[in-house]
Amino acid sequence: MLLESGYKDSSCSPSNCYALEGSVVLNLDSASNTFDQYDPRTFQFHQAPRCEWRMMEWGQSQVKVLDEDTLMPARYKSMFKNKSSWPGPDKKAANAFTCPPEESLVSYPDQRDALARDKFVEGKGGAFMWFEHMQKAGGTSFCDWAEENVGKSRLPPYYCMIERKGRLHDIPENTLYGMMKTGKGTHAWGRESPQLQPKADGGYAVTANEWDRFPYQRLDTMVNRTLFATVLREPIERIMSHYNFFIVENASPSSQKKGKIPPFVKIIGRNDYNNYYIRKLTDQTNEVVINWNHLELAKKVLQRFTLVVVLEFLEMGIPSFDYIGWKLPHRKVLPPNFRAKSVQQYRSSWDQESQGVVRDVFARNYFDLLLYEFALQLYFERNNQCFDI
Predict the structure, then answer these.
(1) Strand order in the sheet with 44-49
(2) CB burial readout 9-21, b (16+ within 10 A) else e
(3) Could you write out the DSSP letters of every residue in 203-247?
């Protein structure tokens, strides 16, 4: 059950019956008359007395109630109950998926920009692809996929970035369209680069936004001329990979030699390690406390993206890629020993330290995990063409 400000019962004292806005209640226990309340401000689960909650309006807020399976996906529930290792994505989910009833579809009505898609497929420069690059979620591979489908001559040479380090947030739209058409952008370190001149008619077809948040208002202001795409990865796997790549592998030789690499348990306390997907898709800074409203907005953003790929299930994405005139890309598989042992231990063990770390990561990324579940459903529905039933 999700509680926002506005749940109250006259039989309980105010200290027991008011919940913080955006807080989540799990594990209602009728026997002990308690519940576990998740506070997104502190990333903590607190046991509290249970009241017989009833709904009432509270200001402009609309109270929402969800069933436990929606709030705690089965694989996570099993992990906490059985004290097992981090489950990662459910590989059987794709085979087990069946199209839900029409009223439960998240892919229908189809909110993708069909005109922009048609112009993009035509390949004459009438529309380009804005790729929202989620770090350590397959973004670099996506640029390789783009090269397989549109050709190297129609891509900015530095990881598909038309602007330095992939920062598109504040570029005026007409300026961006001009950059894509003429190729007069800047390379990775901000200097103008003549090598960015496109070698094909129609300008560049794809550009990436990696280091800025996504200005989601562009979905309205760039309609009919831009299609939006992204790749998502299971959030906790992404965090582990992010730590391994940016903190461990890129540490200076002196830091590695002196053992000064920050441990994983320290890094996950940083604000940029919680609910990254939602922060990026809804244009929220690290100082903002992510809540239910941000999750709902992020869902609406994904529904309007022309291409949403879930990395773990790339192989089932033929219809999604076919929709934009692309072939399913070749997948690069990392060697088993690619990840650092300092991260791997939290997948394979359940000692006291690992249990605490996994619970902390789960709590800090709770809304991202729910968004990932939504993205899975959207991806499965589109690839099973559920809206055509």
Answers:
(1) 24-29, 34-39, 44-49
(2) eeeeeeeebbbbb
(3) --SEEEE-SS---TTHHHHTTTTEEEEEEE--HHHHHHHHIIIII
Pairwise CA distance, residues 374 & 299, whole Å: 7
Residue type, 237: E
Q: From CA 213, how far away is CA 84, in angstroms rounded?
A: 35
What's the gap between Cα 84 and its chain centre? 25
What does pTM read for this prediction?
Answer: 0.80
What does the chain come to in residues?
Answer: 389
Q: Which of 180, 177, 171, 175 is nearest to 150 (CA)?
A: 180
Angle, CA 355 vertex, CA 351 and CA 360 arms, to 5° = 150
Using the structure block, give the residue that is written with the tokens 């099973």.
384
Across 365-389, average pLDDT: 89
The more confidently predicted of residues 323 and 339 is 323
Q: What is the model's pLDDT at position 275?
A: 94
Domains assigned to the chain:
1-67 (no CATH), 114-343 (3.40.50)
